[in-house]
Design goal:
alpha+beta, Beta-lactamase, seven-stranded antiparallel β-sheet, three-stranded antiparallel β-sheet, 16 strands, 16% strand
């Protein structure tokens, strides 16, 4: 496999790990980017643009990043809070009165971000056609009863997270999350990252699909008594129902799906776009358009990464850790250090920032695997970065 791109001196092990992903872990097409203190130190890509094609992956090739979208969407609510437009400890119903139905008066904005809202499922899942209408998901959640008392437990809101975030952004700003991000973050920063893919950029996004590959020797952690994959196979479980809030799930290669903004699951990004997004959350960054001022104040960074939820996850089964809108370093999703915050995407993608080391990381792929939170390809790259920094 020919690996294209560059690495800064000392980061050669990341190139080696990236090549191994193709040689032994089944990658067909992928890219990884790493920033350190706002400057790019890794920019690699290889393979094919489409998982089932032959056209080469190019520098600007983008892919759907699935649940890595959640970390991007979370920035909208945290920035609105930082600007004094949103109170994290206010009831969601304060901004969205219809949401109060079915005893949901006690759900706080904070609960949306830390996965303690008690709304991971819909009693009647949306059809793919309904999911393309940005109003149908919030309408369904407004009428949905709670699965548990808000704030008392946590469980991954796999799809409902997106509608909760989207309607809060809409009620506060008058724009959907995708529009707001484009006007306030991704557009001004010139990021190759879209929530609601413009038709003008559609040619850059490759086809995705399932791939298989050998597991790395030694494994990443001990196998839990019941994995999320096993829980997903149980149709009555919260796991299965949470991931089936849209049923059947839309074809992720469908242009209509890509053009819709679903803030839980369908952002499109290059590895560089995802990495520089995180780099600019924690510090000033250098990009094609010049220098860009950090987005989050130090206080907002602490909100993102201060532990809000930890322990057995009622949806993902394994133990998870969440800050406000972001997964934190732990056994379910190992990041760089205990202070890292970010979000994986089911099947492969990963984006995160580590304020202590100044590292921001982005990995995207067109080959999805069964993994939900700790894909071995992304983890191999993270371990390589960790080794470079001697952590």
């Amino acid at each position: 496999m020919d690996v294209n791109g560059t690495v800064a001196e000392g980061f050669e092990p990341v190139r080696n790990a990236f090549a191994r992903n193709f040689d032994t872990l089944g990658d067909r097409g992928a890219a990884v980017a790493v920033y350190r203190d706002g400057h790019k130190v890794v920019d690699l890509w290889g393979g094919t643009k489409d998982v089932d094609g032959t056209a080469p992956w190019e520098r600007g090739t983008a892919q759907v990043v699935r649940s890595a979208t959640k970390g991007v969407a979370a920035a909208a609510l945290l920035l609105l809070h930082q600007r004094g437009q949103l109170d994290l400890d206010a009831p969601v119903g304060h901004y969205w009165p219809e949401f109060k139905a079915q005893g949901k008066e006690r759900v706080l904005v904070r609960h949306v971000l830390n996965h303690r809202a008690g709304l991971p499922v819909l009693d009647r899942p949306l059809t793919p056609q309904e999911a393309l209408d940005p109003l149908r998901g919030p309408e369904a959640l407004a009428g949905q009863a709670l699965a548990w008392e808000p704030g008392t437990d946590h469980g991954y809101h796999a799809l409902t997270y997106g509608w909760l975030v989207d309607e809060l952004v809409r009620r506060v700003t008058g724009q959907g999350t995708g529009q707001w991000l484009a006007s306030q973050i991704t557009g001004p920063l010139g990021l190759d990252l879209w929530l609601g893919l413009p038709e003008s950029e559609a040619y850059r996004v490759g086809r995705v699909g399932r791939v298989e590959g050998a597991e790395p020797t030694g494994g990443l952690r001990a196998r839990p008594k019941r994995s999320v994959t096993e829980a997903y196979e149980d149709p009555a479980s919260l796991t299965r129902r949470a991931f089936a809030a849209i049923s059947p799930f839309p074809d992720q290669n469908d242009p209509a799906y890509r053009a819709t903004a679903l803030p839980a699951t369908n952002a499109m990004a290059t590895a560089d776009g995802l990495a520089r997004f995180y780099a600019t959350l924690i510090g000033d960054t250098a990009g094609a358009g010049g220098l860009f001022t950090r987005l989050f104040t130090p206080e907002t960074v602490e909100l993102a990464r201060a532990e809000e939820s930890a322990g057995p996850d009622r949806v993902l089964v394994v133990g998870t850790r969440f800050g406000l809108g972001y997964m934190l370093h732990g056994s379910a999703s190992p990041l760089l250090t205990p202070g890292s915050f970010g979000h994986p995407g089911r099947g492969g993608a990963l984006g995160f920032a580590d304020p202590e080391t100044g590292i921001a990381f982005g990995y995207v792929t067109n080959g999805f695997r069964k993994t939900v939170t700790a894909d071995p390809r992304a983890q191999g790259l993270v371990r390589a970065v960790r080794g470079v920094l001697d952590l």
